[in-house]
Amino acid sequence: MTNSAVPADTRDAVGTRLRRLVLLLLLLLLGIGTAGVLAVQIATGQVSDLAKGYGPAGEQHAQALTLMLDAETAVRGYLITGNRSFLQPYQIGRNKILPSLDATGANLHAIGEHHLDAALADERALAKQWLETYADPIVSKPRPSNATELYQQQNAKQLFDRFRKADATVGASLDANRRRLREASQRLGGLAIPILVIATGLAVLTAAILSFRIASGLTRPLRALRTVVGRLDRGDLGARANEQDGPSEVRALARAVNAVGRRARAEAIVDRDAEVFRQRTRLIASTIRRTTNGNQMADLLVRGLGDAMEADRVWLQVYAADRVPQITAQWQREPLRPLPDPTPEQLEATKALADRLWETAHIISIDDHRTYEPTIAGRGAFAMAQAIGASASLLVPVGDSTSAFGLLWVSMSGHSRHWTLTETGITQHLAADLAHSLVQAHVIERQAQAVQLLRELDQAKADFIATVSHELRTPLTSISGYLEMLQDGEGGRLPDSAAAMLTIIDRNATRLRNLIEDLLTQSRIDAGRLRLELTTVELRPLLQSVLSAMAPLASASDVKLELVSSQEGLNVQADPQQLEQVFTNLVSNALKFTPSGGSVLVTLSPAEDGGVLIEVRDTGMGIPPEDYPNLFTRFFRASNAAEAALPGTGLGLAIVQEIVHRHGGAVDIDSELGVGTSVTVWLPPTSQQEIDLRTSAA
Amino acid sequence: MIQKGLTGAEPPGSQHCAERLTAMTNEPTPEERLPVALIAEDDRDIRELVTAKLSAAGYHVLSFGNGPEALAATHKHRPDVALLDVMMPGISGLEILTRLQKDPATRTIPVILLTAKSQEFDINSGFAVGAADYIVKPFSPRDLVSRVNAVLGRTPA
Fold it and tell me: Assign residue B120 a region: left if phi > 0, alpha if psi is -120 to 50, beta otherwise?
């Protein structure tokens, strides 16, 4: 990853460029200003020299010359004429000549001009000498006679000429200076203006060029950068900005954008990897849920997790608990060898760790064992980690609601590893899934065991019933059989008393037989094993058979037992043995509750709907109305029957109802206390019965 | 183990025997030959009861206490009728019936099944295998004789 801090690279920075531009402009401005000021100053100096210095000095000097010439003319006129009036200009100008020359020097001094001092002094001295030595003496005295000679004295003329020469020198010098100044002023004007114009133009041009270059150097890379950011924004995470283009700030920005892009891409890759990982683990979870075998689940988990996480080793230990069986499962990448079975100490240590992690709702994620300091509780487990050469570990407890019952250990061998949040999260999730599935599977397994046990018990019960049935009927067969032979006289003629005893034995053998039948039928009903073996049954012979079997019982209690059948050939589709049991029970009941001298009447008649009605009517004690709702409840016995200590199991009517219902029929009881009871069985017509059976089977 | 029929109770059944002989005059068998009934029943008391009753009814009775012997004797003696207890050690009555049905020589022998398992025993399947009739324990000896007679087409006097 590139360091996103601003680099020390200021080369071609916009700031630097701008600073340079501003500096340059300032310098230009300063130069132009200075030049202007200088030009103005020079011009001002020249004008001032002209105005204050050379101008007045020239005038004063010219005045002095004029005065001197007038004076000389006046003196000469006086000398020639002797007329004093000629002296008037002399007298007027005499005292102004020297001050004028002095004023000339003063004017020149005022502008700092001293070059002419010597010449001026010379001129003044000559003027003074001419005035004092020549003119004044002439004027102050009366016109001498030799005035003309005097005047024509060569030295006076020479002196004046010298004066004029000196004056001319000064005058020429003054003129030259004035001319020079004027020319300089003209030159300055002709030079300064173009220079200023050119300098200003240059400054404007430079500023414009630099500004344009800076602007273009900024906008182009910025536009490119904006395009890149737009692509990134649209999800093109591969888009990168040119980090070499543009000023340093823009390059830094490009680097920052690229760093963001790279990070986003890296995150996208991480996200994608995490999603792939999630997909794989979802597959593991669903596979685990499909199996109910704990060992298989554990194997699937370690294999799947090791593969999905690209780990080197996955170890799962489930400790035996009441909710789960003990399981050890492990997976390792080739060429690692499987770990030996954990020692009891190791089991203890890892279990303690699992418990602790579970209690504190933690997992342990170790990126590098070398830099990890285990807690006291974890030491035992970490000794094991060392033993197996784990370099990075992820330890997750396996448990459900209340406590941990296992530990899941994902490890790397030989190099460190950063366990991502996704990895740890999903591993925890899988551990929870596994815990739930293990508990569930254990419950299912135990349920299956319980069901198997119940099945075995049921089978044992069925076997027992079959055995009891066989074992009870077999001796009963001998008892009844030999009894019948005895009664038939096949054992020889018996005394009446013995015959009476045999009748009692017979009656009780019949009762015993019925009892056994009821018990077996009830247990078959309970076990759902009562099946109908339907055949066409003619009811009259069946009822006759039942009555004849009951005849000894009836005669023993002195009850009249009779069958009334209004119509021959009444058939039903039924299981004859079960039907026989129904009527045996009903007749047996009727006989039981009917006192001596009473009667039991069995009536067979066709029903209006095509079915058959069989009524068993007795003149017995009747049934209390409050007992009606419970009559068909098994083991229920009518209160008055129980009070009278009449024997019975309370199974009879329950079985009757069950069998009749199975045949699609109905049982109806009508009773009056002390008068008698009537039980009516309605059996459906064959066609309807078939429909009913089919309906109930569907 | 072959138990001979009890001969003491012969007189009451002699008339049946006479009728049978009359009915069989066309056959080339000796006149004194009685119809042979084979009984296979592991309970000795019941076996003796049936033997006594059938002997009295005019049958020559071959009785056996287990399946294998009964099967062997059936093949050997070709009885006129066989009464087989369904629940027997060794080979069950149903199994014997099935085997008899497979052998053309014994297929025609009518078989009556004796069973104590009235409900569990699939009577229809018994008939399907080829039983002529079935008798549920406990049974009336009189009823048993009349059923045997019925199977053989004999009518009691």
Answer: alpha
Interchain pair A470, B87: CB under 8 A: yes
Cβ-based neighbours of A240, under 8 Å, separated by 6 or more: A228, A258, A261
Our CA-based measurement puts residue B119 at a distance from the nearest CA of chain A, in whole angstroms, of 7
In the prediction, which pLDDT does B24 show? 43
Mean model confidence pLDDT for chain B: 78
Q: What angle do CA A395, A397, A402 make, to 5 degrees?
A: 165
B56 touches chain A (CB under 8 A): yes
| Closest Cβ opposite residue B46 in set A469, A477, A513 | A477
Question: Are B142 and A488 in contact (CB < 8 Å)?
Answer: yes
Average pLDDT across each block of 10 residues of chain A; the chain has 698 residues. List them in order.
46 77 85 84 80 82 85 81 80 83 84 81 84 79 67 72 84 84 81 83 84 83 87 85 82 88 87 83 83 86 87 90 85 86 84 87 85 73 76 88 86 87 87 87 87 87 74 88 90 89 88 83 76 85 89 87 85 88 90 90 89 91 84 77 72 88 90 89 74 47
Interface mutation vs chain B, best among A461, A463, A472, A474, most B CBs within 10 Å:
A474
Helices vs. strands in chain B: H and E counts, helices first: 6, 5
What local confidence, expressed as pLDDT, does residue A430 receive? 87
Residues of A in CB contact (< 8 Å) with B are 466, 469-470, 473-482, 484-485, 488, 490, 513, 520-521, 524, 529-531, 533, 577
Q: Do A478 and B45 touch (CB under 8 A)?
A: yes
CB-based contact A577 B46, cutoff 8 Å: no
> Are the Cβ atoms of B119 and A531 closer than 8 angstroms?
yes
Cis previous bond, B11, omega within 30: no
Interface probe, candidates A470, A472, A477, chain B, greatest B C-beta count within 10 A: A477
Minimal Cα distance from B118: which residue of A?
A: A577
Which residues in chain B have Cβ-Cβ distances shorter than 8 Å to A521?
119
**A582-624 confidence digits (pLDDT tens):** 999 999 889 888 999 999 999 999 888 888 999 999 998 888 8
- For A264-289, what is each residue's pLDDT tens digit? 888 888 888 888 888 888 888 888 88
The answer to whether the beta carbons of residues A143 and A78 sit under 8 Å apart is: yes
Q: Which of A540, A539, A541, A563 is nearest to A551 (CA)?
A: A563
Q: Distances from the Cα of B147 to the Cαs of A272, A536, B42, B154, in angstroms?
A: 87, 20, 21, 10
Please indicate whether, in this complex, the C-beta atoms of A485 and B46 are within 8 angstroms of each other: no
Per-residue model confidence (pLDDT) at position B94: 86
Label residue B17 by pLDDT band (50, 70, 90).
very low
Closest by CA position to A684, among listed A566, A572, A605, A579? A572
Which DSSP string do the residues of A507-574 spell out, in sequence order? HHHHHHHHHHHHHHHHHHHHTT------EEEEHHHHHHHHHHHHHHHHHHTT-EEEEEESSS--EEEE
In this prediction the pTM is: 0.47
> Residue A474 is nearest to which of B12, B116, B122, comparing CB atoms?
B116
Q: How many angstroms away from the CA of B72 is the closest CA of chain A?
A: 25
For chain A, what's the residue count?
698
Which structure tokens are listed for A603?
Answer: 């009536």
Residue B28 in this model has a pLDDT that exceeds 60: no
Q: Cβ(A691)–Cβ(A663) under 8 Å? A: no
Q: Which of A629, A609, A627 is nearest to A682 (CA)?
A: A609
Strands B81-85, B111-115: pairing is: parallel
pLDDT at A693: 53
Cβ–Cβ contact B43 with A under 8 A: yes
pLDDT value, residue A543: 92
Number of inter-chain CB pairs under 8 A, A vs B: 69
